[in-house]
Amino acid sequence: MRTASFAARGKTFETRLVAGDLLTLLYCANLAIISQDVWLSRISQPDKPDFAVFDLDPGPGVSFAQVVDIARRLHELLEDYGVPHGVKTSGMGGVHVYVPVVHTDYATTRAFVTQFASRVAAQCPDSATIERAIHRRGKRVYIDPDQNMRAKTMAAPYSVRHSAFAGVSAPVSWQELEEGARPEDFTLGSMLERVKRVGDLWTALGEQPLDLRRLLESARSRRQAAA
To answer: What is the pLDDT of residue 55?
Structure first.
């Protein structure tokens, strides 16, 4: 198995498996590793992420319909700025929105996610929040910017998750979410047939990555003009 370890802040991360081939996946399955959680950057450039991610995490008692509503508002905002993005279920009860990026670092991706998440939370203060403290979130969807840091991991697309329904973190279309798709629709039992039917919805996601610094400058100018 290919492995790698990286130092940070005087510490050395434990050795990690390097995914990307069938043999590694079979090895993980043999160890009963269910969820395949990966970095947002590569071994060759560990401090330069390929994606910025919005992790929409529902609190207790929050419905998936509420998560989808917040995801839709984020989708509309990103569309307004011409930001390429894809959406997938978390395989549990949430949603992940990925933005392909280039020539950037984690500080910039985190600033980007924080800025746009803050705007969505300001639009929907009763149903969305960026409040980190769990006891202060209430029955709202937490839009987590802190996943955009070195060595943080996210469930890989098509990974099975530790859920009661054997959910899969499945790329979906915005139309499917609007039409009432649920996490339970995307499972270990249904995923092979789904991929045969609809293909990989994220095939072209990384073909036109975004230069985040230019976008943040544009967003800052728009806010100043509006003020």
So the answer is: 98
pTM (two decimals)? 0.92
- Rounded to whole angstroms, the Cα distance separating 107 from 201 reads 28
d(CA 206, CA 113): 18
Contact, 173 vs 138, CB < 8 A?
A: no
For the chain, report the end-to-end CA distance as a whole number of angstroms: 55
Q: Measure the CA–CA gap between 168 and 179, rounded to whole angstroms.
A: 19
Q: How far is CA 204 from CA 26, 85, 159, in A?
A: 27, 10, 19
Buried b (16+ CB within 10 A) or exposed e, 90-99: bbbbbbbbbb
Closest CA relative to residue 172, chosen from 62, 75, 61: 75
Dihedral over Cα of 137, 177, 97, 212: its sign: negative
Q: Tens digit of pLDDT for each residue in 40-75?
A: 999 889 899 999 999 999 988 999 999 999 999 999
Q: Is 77 exposed, middle or buried, given 0-12, 13-18 or 19+ CB atoms closer than 10 A? A: middle
Reported in sequence order, the residue ranges of the chain that DSSP labels E, i.e. its strands, are 3-4, 7-8, 11-12, 16-17, 37-38, 51-58, 86-89, 95-100, 128-129, 141-144, 154-155, 171-172
